[in-house]
Amino acid sequence: MYGYTGYYKGCKVSVQGSGMRNPYMGIYAYELFRNYGVETIIRIGTADAIHEDVAVGALVFAMGCCTNSNFPMQYHLPGTFAPIADFSLLEQAVGIAREQKAPFHVGNIFSLDVFYEDQEGKKGIWAKMGVLIQEMETLSLYCTAARAGRRALGILTAGSSLHSNETLTNEQREQKLDMMIRCALGLAERSESP
After folding, report:
1. Around 61, how many Cα atoms within 13 Å sit in the side-chain half-sphere?
2. What is the pLDDT of residues 142-161, one digit of tens each?
3. List of residues 6+ apart from 99 with CB closer than 8 A
4. Residue 36 — very low, low, confident or very high, per pLDDT cuts 50/70/90?
5. What is the DSSP string of 73-111?
6. CA 3 to chain centre
7. Could you say which of 2, 29, 33, 177 has the lowest number of CB atoms within 10 Å?
8. CA 31 to chain CA mean position, Å
9. Contact 59/104 with Cβ under 8 angstroms?
10. Residue 27's closest CA among 155, 153, 137, 154?
11. CA gap 112, 109 in Å, rounded
12. What is the spatial distance between Cα 139 and Cα 42, in angstroms, rounded to a whole number?
């Protein structure tokens, strides 16, 4: 998997691909935290809006993560683990989005392991619980960060919606994804350890 390290406004930043789905993100997050001493991972990517209040193109900051994945079972906990974002990263990211005047939501997301479901339409029921979007990697990132005692945040752009046929065009993707990327880079710059 490709990874690149460079500088953004004097801040050293690495960009690493993670592949699709929770198992792949879990591998890369584990290795970055354990083998390379990474302290903070900010996940960026696209997602599918499942709540009708989330417009296509809006930013979503993943405060918490629901799932149908068995990924958390590896920890053998005597209950259900609720993986969450690092609050200081979340708070700073919201501040950056406000500065950028970017439309955004903060809340619970749904992280699943199946892209093409056999029974379509089942994902939308999560909206009844206030869940905003669905994607496939944040759960394993948050679990791995919690286990390693490190920090993580998922910043996502709604690229499509279950409530309409609307999807971001290539031109819109360039604009909206740029907003998400600039937010992540601004966060990396502000949260860099001295």
Report:
1. 26
2. 999 999 999 999 999 999 99
3. none
4. very high
5. GGG--SS----B--HHHHHHHHHHHHHHT--EEEEEEEE
6. 18
7. 2
8. 18
9. yes
10. 137
11. 10
12. 13
* Structural tokens at position 122: 């089942």
One-letter amino acid identity for 99?
A: E
Contact between 188 and 76 (Cβ < 8 Å) = no
Q: Supply 163's token pair.
A: 């409530």
Percent of the chain with pLDDT over 90: 61
Whole-number percent of the chain with pLDDT over 70: 94
Instruction: Give 61: exposed, middle or buried? Use CB within 10 Å, 0-12, 13-18, 19+.
Output: buried
- Which of 15, 8, 153, 179 has the alpha carbon at shortest distance from 91? 153
The single residue listed with the structure tokens 């944040």 is: 138
Q: Which residues pair with 12 in a beta bridge?
A: 7
pLDDT digits 0-9 by tens, 85-106? 999 999 999 999 999 999 999 9
State which amino acid sits at residue 38. V
Residue 156: closest CA among 79, 11, 64, 45:
45
Tokens standing for 158?
């709604």
pLDDT tier at 168 (50, 70, 90 boundaries)? Answer: confident
| Helix 170-191, helix 87-100: angle, nearest 10 | 130
Q: Of 66-70, 81-85, 124-128, 132-136, give the lowest mean pLDDT range.
A: 124-128
Q: What angle do CA 115, 116, 117 make, to 5 degrees?
A: 105
